[in-house]
Amino acid sequence: MTTALADFAASLPKAELHLHIEGSLEPELMFALAERNKVAIPFASVEEVRAAYQFSRLQDFLDIYYQGAQVLREEDDFRDLATAYFDRAAADNVVHAEIFFDPQTHTDRGIPFATVLNGLNAGMIEAEKKHGLTSKLILCFLRHLDEEAAFQTLKAAEPFLDRIAGVGLDSSELGHPPEKFARVFAAAGTMGLKRVAHAGEEGPPDYVHQALDILEIDRLDHGNRALEDSQLTTRLAREAMTLTVCPLSNLKLCVVDHIDAHPMKRMLDAGLRATVNSDDPAYFGGYVNDNYRALAGTGQLSREDFVTLARNSFLGSFLPDEAIARHLAALAAHVAAA
Ligand code: ADE
Ligand code: ZN
């Protein structure tokens, strides 16, 4: 029964809205790029890398994630990274993806913004040709760095704005509240960019309030801790705010103790527009369908819940209304035939 439900969930056409492209760097590619670029990495084997992926909080993961990203140097590296992700996503029936990239992780090492952008863009174009998978880019500011650095990054992005859909906020949440980036988010809004932010992953419900009221976000990344505040939960539901939830990430980063304790069912029952995403699949044990399957394994979600989650992934995307309508119709046809 559970397997049939997991297979059904996996078969659904879906969008992925919370994916850090640097977090899709598999150890095999990390090793290949380390060799290609003559970058030293502190691991002797792929197995050793995987064994190091034991985290008890977000910062444990971030330390190793930024270290891994050092092997990315050339345009082709970023293209190969993107292509590997899109091939994997297409196999999971992802038909549209809105992916994060962290330019500061690269520009701070002397890699030009254009190298990152052009490489990722080449992978995006290839994915559309090869799989019909469309995608958008979201530039994330690293919140452990200061406002001035975020402004410099926004400036570096200016020549490429036709290829960037929005800005986001990621990295160490605790101690770096959304209000720290109020002015740079306001500037991004003026430039016509969409705005999203990680909030309520480890941070308190107040950070979600700040993301809504001060950053004026269009979408909330994670948002788990919003459930601690019933008025906030009601508001998110009323405003049809999309939450990009990442079950296996939550498990690996100890946001939840066990997958059966994941709040996805509670989120749906509260009327939240929740979606399922993989966050950093190379580090957290799976791509988007591994996340759908993990939820199916809890026995808490119904077939209708999974259809809702797939529907929400399109409704929460930054695609134009006609494209959303097309994807919803294809999803409905798929469900009717399943
Ligand atoms: N950067 C990559 N993954 C992240 C996450 N889950 N939270 C915050 N920053 C991140
Ligand atoms: Zn994330």
SSE arrangement:
Blueprint: H1 2-11, E1 14-20, H2 27-37, H3 46-51, H4 58-68, H5 75-91, E2 94-101, H6 103-107, H7 113-131, E3 134-142, H8 147-157, E4 166-170, H9 182-190, E5 194-199, H10 205-213, E6 219-222, H11 230-238, E7 242-245, H12 247-252, H13 264-269, E8 273-276, H14 281-284, H15 288-297, H16 303-315, H17 321-337
Parallel strand pairs: 1-2, 2-3, 3-4, 4-5, 5-6, 6-7, 7-8
This protein binds adenine (ADE) and zinc ion.
Q: How many strands appear in the DSSP assignment?
A: 8
Cofactors, ions, other ligands: adenine, zinc ion
The rounded distance between the terminal residues' Cα atoms is 15 Å
CATH architecture: Alpha-Beta Barrel
- The CATH class is Alpha Beta
Largest sheet: 8 strands, parallel
Low-confidence stretches: none
Q: Which structural class do you get from the secondary structure elements?
A: alpha/beta
Helix content percent band? 40-55%
Q: Roughly what is the average pLDDT, rounded to an integer?
A: 97
Categorize the overall geometry.
globular
Task: Say which CATH homologous superfamily is assigned.
Answer: Metal-dependent hydrolases
Summed up, the helix count is: 17
The succession of helices and strands, N to C, reads HEHHHHEHHEHEHEHEHEHHEHHHH
| Strand residue percentage | 5-15%
- CA radius of gyration is 19 Å
Task: Give the CATH topology.
Answer: TIM Barrel
How many domains?
1
